[in-house]
Amino acid sequence: MENQSKLSDQIHDMWDLYRKCLPDVGKAYDELPMEVYKEGALPEKIKRLMALTGALVHGCQACVLFQTDKALEAGAAVDEILEACAVAVSLGGTMGAGETTRVVKFLDEKGLLDELKDRR
Hints:
Elements: H1 4-21, H2 23-36, H3 44-58, H4 61-73, H5 78-109, H6 114-119
């Protein structure tokens, strides 16, 4: 499996290039997520875990990596991310399971699974 951190960086770089080519579209696109993911009745962390589950079921690799990173930034623990993956596996079957391996590799590359691997 390819390096997920590098893939995430490449996707981010290409999105930035796209936004430079069509800045009005990029600006319009950014406004909705800024509103949706702000703190409200649900904290941002929960919203990011929900988005991760949707991304896993849908099979969007860019979304999976982005939402995993954003969930971590919002304070999600690795256990919470893995449980969100479990929901995706339950809902999405093999699509959710296949994309969950991307999350596991991404977390492993960041050294975030070491403690869990030692516990088991």
